[in-house]
Amino acid sequence: MRWLDHRETVPAPLRGAIIALGNFDGFHLGHQAVAKEAIDWARREGRPAIIATFDPHPVRFFKPDVPPFRLTTLEQRQELYLDAGATAMLVFHFDGALAGTSAEDFITEILLDRLGAHGVVSGEDFTFGQGAKGDVALLQGFGAERGLASRARAIRRRPHGSSPAPSPCAAWSSMATKEAVKSAIPPPTSRSRSICARITGSMP
Hints:
Elements: E1 2-5, E2 18-21, H1 29-45, E3 49-55, H2 58-62, H3 74-84, E4 88-93, H4 96-99, H5 103-114, E5 119-123, H6 136-145, E6 149-153, H7 174-182
Parallel strand pairs: 1-4, 2-3, 2-5, 3-4, 5-6
């Protein structure tokens, strides 16, 4: 499985791909739904399927004093994405240059020119670009006008203030997963393709 860097031009065999856009740190059920949409779309059209992630998490860049909490390493994410059926993993290295890229330039210069994307799939609340000004509407409007196809998935989230999910596998968002991990809720112990068997943090 190829490991791609957003700062480099994507090799010719991987251009024209469908890219799942998001952080996908814990690869919870919502993340998996977005990834599956991208992979299914790519397979129907005979295209590469790429799952993207950000490293470090944008929060670590804007709020460096926030205690670090990483659900998965990049190596673990690569394994998870491969199991999901992706052709490659794309790492957006979040630094000052990426943070200062306008949403329009993110679409034209990065997604289209550098990565050669045919289409992207994201959660309906995905934001990008300087000041998080880019959103699904911009992808579907500005992006579509420039030849980028896009789709958005509704991501179900656990109501704020409700009890944590009974296990990290049942969590609906990365926040819920992190709460479950911090609460020392035990994950399944058998090694399988189940996502929760590979989540890191305070779990054994």
